[in-house]
Amino acid sequence: MAKKVRHVLGISGGKDSAALAIYLKQQNKIPEIEYFFTDTGVELPEIYTFLDKLEIYLGKKIVRLGSKKDFFHHLKMKDGMLPSPQQRWCTKDMKLAPFEEFIGNDECISYIGIRADENREGYISNKKNIKPVFPFIEDSLVREDIFNLLRETVGIPEYYEWRSRSGCFFCFFQRKEEWLGLAERYPKEFARAVQMEKQEGGKGYTWIQGMTLEELIERKDEILANSKKRKEHLARKKDNRSWQDILIEDGQDDESQACLICSL
Ligand code: SF4
């Protein structure tokens, strides 16, 4: 008897994978679909709240996967080299590896929430038994459709109010003003990121290229002023919009750089 093909959908905590799970559930074509979330153990706290909410809507468990060793073990193994866009070992070791272990040698279809209006690259598994499919592209769904799907169901994750992507609290893809948002909302997590940078400071590793987090705090006013200017420019286009509406129109969230498995 032929082995059953597994259907899986990785939930990152981001808007697109959540919307895809909702979209596929509403179509009810794949009742056997398995949802999973690869947890680095250092994710943004709000992500866990959003996952719980989504789980209730989907009526099915989002299986939590993770590396057997924590982030700090991996960091030690890399001789203290903080992950960066050029050295994305965190994604490979803490997101992709647990996913590939979860699938093993099973034949599998992996549903990925890349939209029809983007051309995103990122880490996806190259294993031959894992076939990626892109329902939003096939059905021509764009950014606004994704926000509508979320608004009508579980809501847009609250962290989008101050941060443009899901993932680890210290993700090096976040903007400078998002680091400041982390400092304000999650001072403990921010302090941990500062400490990690300091521990490895002798080696010259910083989360932001060319700037330490302490320098970022010193330049807070200048960074916030620049961010305000950008937001005002966007807001001038239309008045009376909610932050969710502004987010829909603010296409500058650097999505093309993000890891599919981390923040899609
Ligand atoms: S969210 Fe950022 S820091 Fe975390 S695994 Fe993904 S790329 Fe690395």
From TrEMBL:
Residues 7-120 form the Phosphoadenosine phosphosulphate reductase domain. InterPro entries: PAPS_reduct_dom, Rossmann-like_a/b/a_fold, Sulfate_adenylyltrnsfr_sub2. One of its GO terms (molecular function) is catalytic activity. SUPFAM superfamilies: Adenine nucleotide alpha hydrolases-like. Signal peptide: none annotated. This is Phosphoadenosine phosphosulfate reductase. It comes from Bathymodiolus azoricus thioautotrophic gill symbiont.
